[in-house]
């Protein structure tokens, strides 16, 4: 049986969307291949290996040290920009990442005597160019087939989320040569959208395949999607980045809506699921006196997060600054839960296009439009006349990770 090695920078304990997506890909491919899913753990892994059929999970604990502990403290305190600068400085002087999965996998290889071969396939996913570099190194050493996966456009295209101009310049300046090297030797390149595909150098675009983000079909019980007639729940899923809070039009509109129509907290709730690490979000909520209306939770397992979405009346996005090419996993999850989606400030990009394509909700340009949309939706909800956007089983499958993974499996089979 052919083997596939899938590498993830993030581990299970982070509840990162990227990790959940790669785990889902690993589970799907394990139906046809022996899959070794290797991922980094910032905490000590309780079990060194987990076997389920053809899937072998290998959590590797990152070596702890002085810089690791500083980085972890910065992240835990919500200071992500200084943490990124620490990563960049360490990479510049040491030539490797603080959390180096390649180093940990090399230790694992020596301890287990595992050998790779030309028949094996390596699947490495960005973000973290170190993971792509690991894929390149394994291909050079063993002659494996190499699949480069991009959830973000690497050094090409828009400035990474919460990178400032200096950090973005350094990233492009010092990582571009290695990224081009990796692209040149890849046997398959996949990314999540046509927009990101078009950010790559033109010579590579014809060979890049699009495998979209998707929601986890296996984790949703569609029978539990319900209407909550007494309380209108406006829900955001996932991390809120500082870049998304540069424009506070949405929060101004909420405050005006509440004051204008004297809306009480029991009738309107603003929920942020998995957004607790954002200190700036809490400051903005406090700035507009929205604390009685707002509930913010920590990150949690995806099935638990989904359980928070069943009683939502409406979902919403916060655009990513001036970036137009970002289409997050949450968009597919919102579409799957079949409640209207609010884009309070138009991104004039992928989010707008997706909402229009699926006739999925409302795109606003200013405070007045936000207030009008929400007032009408709240009134309809309280009258027992909520909006639900029914989707066919075929459409729901196409939007799912499982539907997209079927396309990926076909591409890998051709290797």
UniProtKB/TrEMBL annotation:
<keyword id="KW-0808">Transferase</keyword>
<protein>
    <recommendedName>
        <fullName>Glycosyl transferase group 1</fullName>
    </recommendedName>
</protein>
